[in-house]
Design goal:
There is one protein chain. The chain is globular. A hairpin with a 5-residue loop joins strand 1 and strand 2. It has a 7-stranded antiparallel beta sheet, sandwiched between helices. It contains 4 helices and 7 strands, in the order H-E-E-H-E-H-E-E-H-E-E. The longest helix has 16 residues. With 134 residues, the chain is an alpha+beta fold.
Length: 134
């Protein structure tokens, strides 16, 4: 991964839609926002998308189909708490995503393989968000 793409990941805002309205923003290296802590509790969580594998832009229809497959994969595990989310860069980049509570880091790695993703976020409870790279 080139340095510019890595910088873009680090500057991005990872927005989680709140069930009460609005959004909470997760940032790499910072603790989980207060609005999300009760949901996360003492569980692992991740922020993940199926859009634009290998950071290569895909047609919208291709991205939407991949995201629907990802949602179906996530819903197959009834223990997961899945929240709509959006990765948003400072340069206009946007990718629909999911904040997934109850997912282990190794399960996110398998999803990374399956969906060809370069990176995703992981965390535990109220702890800091970490960027994981493929």
């Amino acid at each position: 991964m080139d340095e510019e793409l890595l910088k873009a990941y680090r500057r991005s805002a990872y927005r989680v839609r709140l069930r009460t309205g609005g959004a909470a923003i997760i940032r790499i290296g910072e603790p989980l926002p207060v609005a999300l802590r009760e949901v996360a509790s003492n569980r692992d969580w991740g922020f993940f998308t199926a859009w634009n594998p290998r950071s290569r832009p895909q047609p919208p229809a291709t991205n939407r189909a991949a995201q629907r497959r990802l949602l179906a994969d996530l819903r197959a595990d009834a223990s997961l708490d899945i929240h709509p989310a959006l990765g948003k860069g400072t340069d206009g980049w946007r990718e629909p995503s999911f904040w997934i509570v109850g997912i282990a880091p190794h399960a996110l790695e398998r999803l990374g393989d399956r969906y060809g993703q370069n990176a995703w976020l992981v965390g535990h409870g109220a702890g800091a968000a970490e960027l994981r790279l493929r």
